């Protein structure tokens, strides 16, 4: 699989997946009704502080596992005790895949929702739900097509990276300048930083504040993208943690700026919370300031952001899915895991189309429930935080110095308290972001994030108990004999149920060697054809981890 290795490509991937406008703008109305300005500002700061503990803990782990293919799936397997290795990989892999699919669908849905708002502004008519769903399907399909066919063209790829960075940086700046010049009577700083609004029907201010945290939680996700896109670059032990930290800082800085900008653009809060012109609160702010034409131009900025973010998330989803398929977790895993240079230009095109199909199916939920966007975003926040917390928890509670050596980016003595805060926040988030947002609760306003989460976790654990525990991870791919971990045969690079060949490094005795070379002791490493300095570095680190694993069994 082709990976983002240039600094600009790395920055583009991180900034795109952690797109702040995609998280903040669509959820403005929900947060204004559940806490108002004070919760938007300080809730985002609080969530960012809690999320920073997760980002730091992941960076610490990533630094100790350079050149490791499989991302969080492989991290969880390596950090878990023997009896938990297979189930932890299964749970993390599938939950991560579900979170990315849901995230790609939510980006496409935000695009569709704002597009229909533009139609309403232009025509004066409110589009029916099926039009929103149709736009969602078209955009999701376009995400899949870009992932499958355009990513292999260097010129187009580089151009897209440039556009994505410029769009995500200039977009908030244009929004800031527009509001700063157009709003002649901005609200006071006291109102922005202290006003509390409650139009949820719940009487408890504390409960309402918890509901309002969902905006920040959805925004501050996706900073793990460098783990999947940068693992094989030179000096990955430092560059990957650096990418995680940069992604987090960019999200925090731009998110805080965008929230304050939107709040200072509000002149009539009741009109913004109950939009009549566009149906979307964030758009209503601009409708009052710059009229229909100017608002349409701002919508173009918003939907462009949603588009680039959705395309980036789908790409990440296809890569995570491919990593999961390599381990044999999918039916016909050989088909979905295959990466052909002519098909998708080194990208897992088949897995990308599978993600696209699932994303389109999720969009159909809008036909039966209008709060689907809030449910999707809450589900993404919960699922990703759970995915992040598993390797962190394994590192905290099952720490084994033989299996894990800290890298150049290490938290030192602060690792344990930071990890404990990260895990606590992730667990609390499961309950917080599953809370119903409106009272009285009806089928139309219920927060279905809890249903999505319970359904997803139930399917993952149920499939493990009734099926996967009998075969997942027991059989080393490639047809050779493997290293046996108790009752498990595994490889540090690729491992699974069936022989999934393309690009998967495996351990075997006999056969072809790595880069055409064979070790004198008869241990061959298969799966790589040509070696350069980076490959040799990867082999060295891989053998080092293999030695640690073998020592742990003595």
Provide the low-confidence segments as ranges: 152-158, 475-530
Rg computed from alpha carbons, rounded to a whole number of angstroms: 24 Å
Strand content: under 5%
In angstroms, what separates the terminal alpha carbons?
36 Å
CATH superfamily of the largest domain: Amino acid/polyamine transporter I
Count every beta strand, where a strand is a DSSP E run of 2 or more residues: 6
Strands in their spatial order, largest beta sheet: 1-2
Number of domain units: 2
Shape: globular
Proportion in helices: 55-70%
Count of helical regions: 21
Helix and strand topology:
Blueprint: H1 7-17, H2 20-24, H3 28-33, E1 34-35, H4 37-64, H5 71-79, H6 85-123, H7 129-150, H8 154-182, H9 189-194, E2 197-198, H10 205-211, H11 214-219, H12 225-229, H13 236-264, H14 269-273, H15 281-326, H16 333-337, H17 349-363, H18 372-397, H19 415-432, H20 449-466, E3 483-485, E4 488-490, E5 506-509, E6 523-526, H21 533-552
Antiparallel strand pairs: 1-2, 3-4, 5-6
Describe the model:
- It comes from Linnemannia elongata AG-77.
- Keywords: Membrane, Transmembrane, Transmembrane helix, Transport.
- It is found in: Membrane.
- Its main location: membrane.
- The chain has 554 residues and is mainly alpha-helical.
- The strands form 3 sheets. The protein has a two-stranded antiparallel ribbon with strand order 1-2.
- The chain has helices at 7-17, 20-24, 28-33, 37-64, 71-79, 85-123, 129-150, 154-182, 189-194, 205-211, 214-219, 225-229, 236-264, 269-273, 281-326, 333-337, 349-363, 372-397, 415-432, 449-466, 533-552; strands spanning 34-35, 197-198, 483-485, 488-490, 506-509, 523-526.
- It folds into 2 domains: 7-467, Amino acid/polyamine transporter I, CATH 1.20.1740.10; 483-552, no CATH class.
- Strand 3 and strand 4 (488-490) form a beta hairpin.
- The protein contains 21 helices and 6 strands.
- Residues 152-158 and 475-530 have low confidence and may be disordered.
